[in-house]
């Protein structure tokens, strides 16, 4: 569009030559004239014999129509003043606005899950009814509906009959309706690669039935890992439509990306990515356009065209999403579009499916920006605010990972249960946590929503445990032996941890020798010896008194020496010094301690202000003064030392027996250069509803470079796309800090902890740049979300967190797998379990099992470290994997 200011002594006229073109007019171009003068002005716009005139009162605006393009003369007259101006009017932007109607699936925010299920099923049925009603309308304004997720489509299938389901399938196959490929909007920077693979099972099934699914919706702000994008591409998905919710997370403010762009994946594949333009409301944008009448629509179209000029948008097709969280479809838009296109030939407006929009856009995208990197989401802390449920989700995943392997090794009878459990934890790992933040002030309603949402992960855990017990008995037999099973393709030297209520229990190896072990706090720690990929080893339980030496409770400072470290503790249970014996290096920053608890207090609970969230800069944009940070309960502690051949545990608890909200334990295995800092929160003391609790670990590094594990790859901290949520880093399993100056590095494993901040803890304070720092803050929990204390599953149980520091040579990938898939320990019989015969892979290749459409086991391999890798299948076939390549092959069981 073109704007002209005509200004004189008493005249000020703003003339906007819009891109709107009337249909069948000699002078089709809409011109809007605004008079900022103090007197009425007469305006004439002419080209050769064609002329248009109007009179505009002070402070008013008027419309007239003129020629489409070419030389134009403007004459403005008022009182005694007359001004003339000649301009060359460029051709208008010719563009087609595509309206994408859908209902955003949000589990538990606007409604509990059961209600969302009912609503989403009803909306698809209502959309079919609207489609049939719109058949007499022009094809371009026919009612088209997009089912945002495959879960929403499964809700329809579950609640409606086969005839209705077949009608919906037919509309999807013919492209009259659209469907997104994602099961739900997962926190992809937190969700495991294998879990993401299973989340696409419904998409693979629909495609196998003949349905084309080429695109995916990703709404709100869950983030996108390249691991998820690789899986989408492998499933046949070519396009990603992101509606990033900017009213809370300032993606638009922070990014320099242009939409659309090619998202180049580590494997070399590309996905066409689009993100919505609205600076605040993302997918809700279309309701501003199509929610009322033709005049409102005209005004919004003009404003949109002006914004496209500002951002230099150059494509002849543009998408306008129209959705609200779990909001029903409305028929008004198709009638407005019919009336609009009857009056205006530009911009043209048409309804669209997600696939048809990208089909229209793709021919114009041969030369657009290529982007590489991870997209860390802004809201991952929503789900990580619930440490127990989040830890249970991770634990359940490790059980399902093992169950998939054992199911493939046996007869595959448990495929259905495994897929169901994967879907349940996928629902909990969805971007609203299945009801973790329910928009209600009714405590009973909140409790019901959280019971349903958190119930998914508890149901998944019960189903997974039942399934794994059945599979273990089938594969390994039943009895009183203790079996240690390595559920990964990596050779492992890790120690095992098993629940144990007998302090005198010990284990005997098959050759009769005693296995080194240590009993502490209801758990038995022991070394099973080296376990190759998918190997198991049996041990006999025995009784042996006095296996541990346990010191009396003492106070004051403490110095401890192991084969690997010299350690110094203060009287508050914090590490003041860690010296590695191998090279004499001090691992901790001078004057700082590891294991200090920090609390950051915020004054406002945002759940009370979400409806007015845009105005709360102090909560969402970090523009207010810094949050208040202080040490949390810096009380003196007493300690006890537990010791055996296996290693040592140093336990610290506050001396005051009437105030012991936490316990810190430092676990020091003898065979590995590891320090495990374990924190148990017995109960919450002096933590408000808006406060955040962190564990501080400051490392002695001058020029730190940070790498982390994310689904499907190992990524440097800098590999984040512009606009990512960089104020906190979400990791899965582990991260590494490398000191580029000295060559020193430390691997950090995480148990029950997923959010890591650097330099200073920064809850809800978004920053453009994440400082490279070795001073780490691990978020334990916060009371920021209203339902943190409403969970019906808390039951007063303690919460456990652990940070594992390793200075050994173990690669980050291998260390991360150790955290995510610990060696499995269980009772078994003498039955010899089958091993994946001849299967070998390099350490940087992650393996897991699934079943193909014929229910045969398939082996899936993913190179995650950005290096060359290999896989040798059971029949001796060798596969060389490129950096980040994803591969599937049939499984040979022997």
Structure keywords:
single chain, 894 residues, alpha+beta, Immunoglobulin-like, 7-stranded beta/alpha barrel, eleven-stranded antiparallel beta sheet, six-stranded antiparallel beta sheet, 17 helices, 22% helix, elongated
What would you note in describing this structure?
- The chain is α+β, with helices and mostly antiparallel strands and 894 residues long.
- The chain folds into five domains: 2-89, Sandwich (Immunoglobulin-like); 120-126 and 139-316 and 354-379, 7-stranded beta/alpha barrel; 381-476; 550-786 and 795-820, Beta-galactosidase, Chain A, domain 5, CATH 2.70.98; 836-894, no CATH class.
- The protein is 22% helix and 32% strand.
- Strand 35 and strand 36 (662-669) form a beta hairpin.
- Helix 1 packs across helix 2 (150-159) and helix 13 (387-409) packs parallel to helix 15.
- It is elongated.
- It starts with a strand and ends with a strand.
Write the layout of secondary structure elements.
Elements (H helix, E strand, L loop, with lengths): L1 E6 L4 E11 L6 E7 L5 E7 L2 E7 L4 E6 L3 E9 L2 E9 L6 E6 L11 H21 L12 E2 L2 H10 L2 H12 L4 E2 L13 H7 L1 H8 L6 E6 L5 H9 L4 E6 L6 H4 L6 E4 L5 E6 L10 H5 L3 H17 L6 E6 L9 H12 E3 L1 E5 L1 H8 L8 E2 L9 H4 L2 H23 L5 H14 L14 H34 L4 E5 L10 E4 L5 E4 L8 E4 L2 E4 L9 E8 L5 E2 L3 E2 L2 E4 L3 E5 L5 E6 L4 E2 L9 E6 L15 H4 L7 E4 L5 E8 L2 E8 L7 E8 L4 E8 L10 E7 L5 E7 L2 E4 L12 E2 L3 E6 L5 E7 L3 E4 L16 E8 L16 E8 L5 H9 L3 E5 L11 E2 L3 E7 L5 E7 L5 E4 L5 E4 L4 E5 L4
Parallel strand pairs: 9-16, 9-18, 10-11, 12-13, 13-15, 14-19
Antiparallel strand pairs: 1-2, 2-3, 2-17, 3-6, 4-5, 4-7, 7-8, 14-15, 20-25, 20-47, 21-24, 22-25, 23-24, 26-34, 27-34, 28-29, 29-30, 30-31, 32-33, 32-38, 34-35, 35-36, 36-37, 37-46, 38-45, 39-40, 39-42, 41-44, 42-43, 43-46, 44-45, 48-51, 49-50, 50-53, 51-52
Helix pairs in contact: 1-2, 4-14, 13-14, 13-15, 14-15
């Amino acid at each position: 569009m073109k704007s002209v200011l005509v200004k004189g002594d008493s005249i000020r006229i703003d003339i906007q030559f819009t891109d709107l073109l009337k249909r069948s007019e000699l002078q089709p171009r809409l011109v809007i004239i605004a008079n900022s003068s103090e007197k009425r002005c007469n305006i004439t716009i002419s080209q050769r014999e064609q002329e248009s005139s109007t009179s505009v009162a002070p402070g008013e605006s008027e419309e007239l129509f003129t020629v489409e393009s070419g030389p134009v003369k403007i004459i403005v007259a008022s009182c005694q003043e007359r001004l003339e101006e000649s301009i060359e009017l460029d051709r208008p932007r010719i563009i087609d606005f595509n309206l994408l109607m859908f209902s955003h699936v949000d589990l538990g925010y606007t409604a509990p899950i059961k209600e969302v299920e009912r609503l989403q099923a009803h909306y698809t049925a209502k959309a079919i009814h609207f489609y049939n009603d719109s058949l007499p309308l022009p094809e371009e304004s026919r009612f088209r509906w997009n089912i945002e997720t495959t879960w929403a489509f499964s809700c329809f299938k579950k609640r409606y009959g086969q005839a209705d389901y077949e009608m919906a399938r037919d509309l999807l196959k013919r492209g009259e309706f659209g469907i997104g490929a994602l099961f739900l909007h997962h926190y992809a920077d937190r969700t495991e690669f294998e879990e993401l693979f299973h989340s696409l099972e419904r998409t693979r099934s629909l495609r196998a039935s003949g349905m084309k699914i080429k695109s995916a919706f990703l709404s709100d702000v869950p983030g996108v890992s390249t691991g998820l994008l690789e899986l989408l591409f492998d499933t046949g998905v070519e396009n990603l439509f992101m509606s990033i919710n900017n009213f809370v997370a300032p993606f638009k403010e922070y990014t320099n990306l242009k939409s659309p762009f090619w998202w180049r994946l580590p494997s070399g594949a590309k996905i066409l990515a689009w993100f919505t333009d609205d600076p605040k409301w993302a997918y809700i944008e279309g309701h501003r356009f199509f929610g009322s009448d033709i005049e409102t629509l005209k005004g919004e179209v003009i404003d949109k065209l002006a914004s496209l000029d500002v951002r230099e948008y150059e494509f002849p097709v543009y998408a306008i999403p129209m959705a609200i969280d779990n909001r029903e479809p409305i028929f008004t838009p198709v009638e407005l579009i019919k009336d609009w296109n009857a009056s205006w030939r530009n911009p043209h407006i048409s309804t669209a499916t997600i696939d048809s929009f990208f089909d229209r856009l793709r021919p114009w995208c041969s030369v657009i920006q290529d982007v590489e990197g991870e997209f860390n989401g802004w809201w991952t802390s929503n789900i990580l605010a619930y440490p127990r449920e989040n830890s249970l989700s991770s634990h359940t995943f490790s059980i399902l990972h093992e169950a998939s392997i054992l199911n493939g090794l046996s007869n595959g009878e448990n495929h259905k249960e495994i897929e169901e459990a994967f879907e349940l934890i996928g629902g909990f790992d969805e971007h609203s946590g299945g009801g973790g933040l329910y928009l209600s002030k009714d405590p009973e309603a909140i409790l019901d929503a959280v019971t349903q949402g958190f119930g998914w992960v508890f149901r998944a855990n019960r189903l997974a445990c039942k399934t794994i017990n059945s599979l273990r008995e089938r594969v390994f037999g039943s009895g009183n032996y203790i079996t240690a099973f390595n559920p990964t393709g990596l050779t492992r030297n890790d120690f095992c941890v098993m629940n144990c209520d007998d302090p005198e229990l010990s284990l005997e190896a098959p050759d009769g020798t005693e296995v080194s072990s240590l009993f502490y706090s209801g758990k038995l720690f022991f070394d099973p010896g080296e376990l190759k990929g998918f190997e198991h080893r049996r041990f006999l339980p025995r009784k042996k008194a006095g296996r541990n030496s346990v010191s009396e409770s003492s106070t004051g400072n403490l110095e401890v020496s192991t084969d690997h470290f010299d350690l110094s503790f203060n009287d508050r249970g914090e590490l003041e010094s860690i010296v590695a014996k191998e090279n004499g290096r001090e691992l901790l920053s001078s004057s700082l301690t590891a294991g200090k608890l920090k609390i950051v207090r915020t004054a406002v609970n945002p759940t009370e202000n979400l409806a007015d969230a845009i105005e709360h800069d102090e909560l969402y944009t970090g523009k207010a003064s810094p949050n208040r940070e202080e040490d949390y309960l810096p009380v003196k502690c007493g300690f006890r030392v537990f010791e055996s051949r296996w290693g040592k545990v140093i336990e610290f608890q506050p001396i005051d027996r009437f105030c012991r909200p936490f316990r810190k334990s430092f676990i020091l295995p003898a065979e590995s250069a590891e320090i495990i800092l374990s924190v148990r929160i017995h109960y919450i003391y002096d933590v408000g509803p808006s406060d955040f609790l962190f564990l501080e670990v400051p490392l002695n590094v001058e020029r730190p470079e940070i790498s982390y594990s994310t689904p499907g790859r190992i990524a440097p901290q800098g590999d984040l796309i512009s606009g990512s949520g960089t104020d906190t880093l979400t990791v899965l399993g582990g991260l590494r800090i490398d000191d580029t100056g000295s060559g020193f590095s430390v691997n950090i494993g995480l148990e029950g902890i997923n959010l890591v901040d650097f330099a200073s803890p920064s809850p809800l304070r978004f920053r453009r740049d994440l400082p490279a720092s070795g001073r780490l803050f691990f978020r334990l929990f916060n009371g920021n979300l209203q339902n943190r204390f409403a969970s019906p599953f808390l039951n007063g149980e303690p919460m456990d967190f652990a940070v594992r520091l390793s200075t050994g040579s173990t690669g980050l990938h291998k260390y991360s797998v150790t955290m995510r898939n610990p060696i499995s320990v269980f009772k078994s019989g003498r039955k010899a379990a089958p091993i994946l015969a001849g299967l070998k892979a390099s350490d940087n290749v992650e393996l897991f099992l699934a079943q193909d459409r014929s229910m045969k086991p398939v082996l899936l391999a993913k190179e995650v470290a950005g290096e060359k890798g290999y896989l040798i299948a059971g029949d001796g076939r060798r596969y060389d994997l490129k950096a980040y390549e994803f591969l599937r092959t049939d499984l040979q069981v022997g």
